[in-house]
Amino acid sequence: MSNLDYKQLDWRTLNVFITVLNEGSVTAAANRLGVAQSAVSHTLDKLRAALGDPLFVRSGRGILPTERANSLRQPVQSILDELKALTVEREFDPRLEPMEFTVSANDFQREALFPGLMREFENEGIDVRFHFLQGGVPSASLLQDAYCDLIVTPFPPNGSGIMQSSMFTDRVVCFFDGSVHAAPASRAEFLANDYIEVRFSNYSSALTVLTSVHPSELKLPKVTVPNFSDLASFMKGTKLITTQMSAMRLGALAEFSYAPLPFENDTLTMYLVWHQRDSADPAHRWLRTRVRERADEFKAIFDANAA
Length: 307
Prior knowledge:
By secondary structure, the chain is α/β, with parallel strands linked by helices. The chain folds into three domains: 80 residues, Arc Repressor Mutant, subunit A (Orthogonal Bundle); 107 residues, Periplasmic binding protein-like II (D-Maltodextrin-Binding Protein, domain 2, 3-Layer(aba) Sandwich); 95 residues, D-Maltodextrin-Binding Protein, domain 2. Helices cover 36% and strands 20% of the residues. The protein is built from nine helices and twelve strands. It has a five-stranded mixed beta sheet. β3, α5 and β4 form a beta-alpha-beta unit. α1 packs across α4 and α5 crosses α9. The longest helix is centred in the last third of the chain and has 25 residues. The termini are far apart.
C-alpha cells in the first residue's frame, strides 16, 4: 500500500499524466509541456505510487498505457476540465496574462491567419505561445482528449462537446500552370488530367473538397505531398492540376492560373472548432475573437482580389 497522501495529486500531476497518455511518449510529453524529461518521469513515479499501478509499460522503443491508465483518461480529464472551469469568472487582461495555445491547422490555414496575429500580439505587448499540429481531416478526439485547444478546418469533426463557428466560405477551383496548358474544359477532361494530391500524415486527403466527384472516378495521383506549400515546386512547368480553395491564390499557389471547376461542386466553409469546456474561458474566448477578426481581414483581401 502507498503512504502517499492523495491530496498531493494536484493539477500539474494529472496534466502530466494526460499529456503522456496522449503523446504515448515521456520525451514527447516533456517537449509539449516545455519541461525536462526527468520532471515528467518524476511526476509519473509519484502518480504510480499513489495509484499502485505502473500506468505505462515499455513496448519496443515506446510505452503503452496499462488498462488502469486507459480507464483513468475520462475521469482525470473531467477533473482537469472542472478545475479549469473555476477560472471562468476571473478578471482577464491579455496584456497581463501569459497564454499558451495548441492549434490544429493545415499549413494553408496556419499561414493565412497566425503569422499576422503574432505580429499584432507582439505590437500590443501580448505574450502568447502557439504550438501547431498538422491538421489533415481532424478527429473529435483532438479536442475531447485536450490534445489541442482549437482546430481550424473546413471539415469540422462531430462528437460530444464539440462546438464550431463558421469563418468564411470559398469556392473550390482548379489550379494549373497557365504557361504549359489550359484549364480542363469539361468534366471528362478534368478526370483525364494528371493531378497532384495533398495527403496528410493521418492518410486523409485534401481531395475531400471534391464533393461531386467519387474517388473511383479519378486516376491515381501522379504525385502526393504532405503540405499545401509543397504543391508549387511540382506543378511549375508541368501539366499537373490541383483542386483547392480559391483563397490559395494569395498564398502557396499565387504564381499559378486558376479556373472554375467544369462541373458543379459544393462551396467550402472554414470553421473554428473547440470543446465546450473552453467556451466560457476568457482567454480562449479572446483568442477565438481575434482569430475570427483575422479571418474577416483575410476574406476581405481575397474578395477584393477576386473583384
